[in-house]
Amino acid sequence: MSVQHDPVQRADFDQVMVPNYAPAAFIPVRGAGSRVWDQSGRELIDFAGGIAVNVLGHCHPALVGALTEQANTLWHVSNVFTNEPALRLAKKLLDATFAERVFFCNSGAEANEAAFKLARRVAFDKFGEDKCEIIAATNSFHGRTLFTVSVGGQPKYSDGFGPKIQGISHVPYNDIEALKAAVSDKTCAVVLEPIQGEGGVLPADLAYLQAARELCDKHNALLVFDEVQSGMGRSGSLFAYMHYGVTPDILSSAKSLGGGFPIGAMLTTSELAKHLAVGTHGTTYGGNPLACAVAEAVIDVINTPEVLAGVQAKHQRFAAKLTQIGEQYGVFSQVRGLGLLIGAVLSDAWKGKAKAILDAAAVEGVMVLQASPDVVRFAPSLVVEDADIDEGLARLEKAVAKLVQG
Length: 406
Prior knowledge:
- The protein has helices at residues 10-16, 49-52, 61-71, 84-96, 108-127, 146-151, 155-158, 176-182, 206-218, 240-244, 270-273, 289-302, 305-329, 354-364, 386-405, and strands spanning 28-32, 35-38, 43-46, 101-105, 133-137, 168-171, 187-192, 195-196, 202-203, 222-226, 250-253, 264-268, 332-338, 341-346, 366-367, 369-370, 375-378.
- It is of the alpha/beta class.
- The protein folds into 2 domains: 10-59 and 305-405, Aspartate Aminotransferase, domain 1, CATH 3.90.1150.10; 74-302, Aspartate Aminotransferase, domain 2 (3-Layer(aba) Sandwich).
- The termini are far apart.
- The relative contact order is 0.15.
């Protein structure tokens, strides 16, 4: 039986919400696969994926089944108790990765918060309080808590909230010499996204990640990979570190991990994990049965040769068409990224206009993202159908053509 709801509209947002977002003029109300429908019944193709979250599209039967079954079984018991879905998910993540221990939480920011706290705790326990410096990349993004926003290398997000957390410095991404100059025996961690997401869909150079690994080993620092956006099949490997063959000490995951249900995870080794002894860190909802049941279904579907190979094939389909649009209309200078995290870099004439393209695309019935004002970002479902890719990119081309015509 369906519940009768009070009618709401987009104008209500401006009356009831804190004004930290500026959402689109339409409200999506229903999704299926890679398509969504708004309040007026208009259909859109979804290449935004809830910002790299809806890894299996909308209402995937495996996820709906897992959530429904768990919803009728057990929702929450807190970490005073463990639960079966959390243990099953943990085993699957550990079996599939370098890790030997996992900490569950609710978001990417929380996964990174745990990662950074662990890195500082390990250094504190082993080397004392002077070894606390964290080195991250400029234009990086690691979350919105005070700690994670300070590690993220974008002052526009961290300025204006009073004193910042000390001991954090930033170096240009993909610059090996700058990293060498920055890392010292006071460094407790080097924190990197294998693919910078918010910063413009910029993949790391292999040599850069290898150098980071060597520098951390040399200086007893920990290498932390933020795979909140790049992980869970997005790159065509289960995690992007596998694509590069460079193994971190700590890895954070969220976004696609839950396929739309909030969950985050920090993965690490037993040797490091022991520094988070009972009472040192925690979360009320982390590892709750609902989230873990859904995430287990996500990994069961994604971590298969068919789906991961399909990501590479779909990348080629996107890249070929986006390159053609870029050349034909003079809008994109480059198409970059790995797997189904793709950035179309705007040409000089179109610099700063990513939002205009995003808005024009929505009018034509396709949802895309931006990653900085200079890059149009695509983070669709990993199982998006080829027909949806073709139709969505045809709609994008129509939007671009109209913009070019003025």
